[in-house]
Design goal:
The protein has helices at residues 10-18, 28-43, 47-55, 74-78, 91-104, 142-152, 170-175, 186-195, 216-227, 232-245, 271-274, and strands spanning 62-66, 83-88, 109-113, 128-134, 153-162, 201-206, 212-213, 246-248, 254-256, 263-270. By secondary structure, it is an alpha/beta fold. Strand 2, helix 5 (91-104) and strand 3 form a beta-alpha-beta unit. The strands form two sheets. The chain has a seven-stranded mixed sheet. The protein has a three-stranded antiparallel sheet with strand order 7-9-8. It has two domains: 5-168 and 181-209 and 261-274, Rossmann fold (3-Layer(aba) Sandwich); 213-258, no CATH class. It has eleven helices and ten strands.
Length: 287
């Protein structure tokens, strides 16, 4: 019996692969605890600049940033576009965003405390010219999330998704004696979009930055964030791994020798070109 491409249930592939990945899904409380450090580390990253160079929205557009975090994209976007709605399920992340927006004098950012599963329309969110979901698609219902993005995108939608292990270093899992399974990545996202009738375009960003840490303990905490709960034996292996790989950065901090460079897939589609086909499957039925 031959298998046709259109018979593949990519949502089922996504769920099955997520169930086998080597790290657990982060909860709201996890992101709340990580907010301040996440904001500090992303402030120096070149990621936002590389992505926004590609997006380059017109100044009169409105933007909906889904999973905005501490404002990695929302803050620089606020200086380029008419208005930004910044949505996140972590109140601590939104607090970081508000503090930085006030310091920068950005009055055109509307923070919204909400998740993928919430009714955005009931929260007063209307379709925006541009919708962005950058590194925020850690959802069980990927198909539903992509349909939702397409519905709220008036002109264009952009998604940034993992390639392979993304920001997670496989060598770290090996160092503590664990098997590593990266789980699903962008290729499932692309295929779900195709099954919805959306012919998305694709590019890649590789972040060739060495992660800097203020202290050895900060480096250890970052590793624990990826690994989750550790046994005493794994803690000892992690300490040995850091002893081997952490080196002074010359500025009073530390960096990883032989660092892991994450790669991200940048996916986008234009509603004006594909609006008639968007959110319809290949059999012609509406979702």
């Amino acid at each position: 019996m031959s298998l046709r491409y259109q018979d593949i249930d990519w949502q089922a592939v996504w769920l099955a692969s997520r169930g086998k990945k080597s790290w657990r899904k982060k909860k709201r409380a996890d992101w709340d605890r990580r907010a301040a450090d996440f904001a500090r580390r992303n402030a120096d990253s070149t990621f936002a600049g590389q992505l926004l160079t590609r997006i380059d929205p017109p100044p009169h557009w409105s933007v909906l940033d889904v999973g905005c975090g501490p404002g990695t994209l929302a803050l620089p976007l606020a200086g380029r576009v008419r208005e930004v709605t910044a949505l996140d399920f972590s109140e601590a992340m939104l607090a970081e965003l508000k503090e930085r927006a006030a310091a920068l004098g950005h009055a055109n950012i509307r923070p919204v405390h909400a998740s993928w599963e919430d009714d955005w329309q009931a929260l007063g969110i209307a379709p925006h010219d541009l919708v962005i979901a950058s590194r925020s698609l850690a959802v069980d219902d990927l198909r539903g999330a992509l349909v939702k993005l397409d519905r709220f995108a008036g002109r264009r939608a952009w998604v940034v998704d993992r390639v392979g292990s993304g920001p997670v270093d496989p060598l770290l899992f090996k160092a503590v004696g664990r098997e590593f399974e990266p789980g699903p990545d962008y290729i499932v996202t692309i295929n779900i979009l195709y099954s919805l009738g959306i012919q998305a375009r694709l590019d890649f960003i590789t972040l060739r930055e060495q992660r800097a840490y203020a202290s050895r303990e900060a480096a250890a905490d970052a590793c624990r964030w990826m690994l989750g709960e550790l046994s005493p034996e794994e803690e000892a292996r992690l300490a040995a791994h850091l002893n081997e790989r952490l080196v002074p950065d010359g500025r009073g901090g530390w960096r990883m020798d032989n660092p892991h460079y994450p790669c991200w897939a940048v996916i986008w589609w234009d509603k004006q070109l594909h609006g008639a086909a968007s959110c319809s499957d290949r059999s012609g039925s509406r979702t």
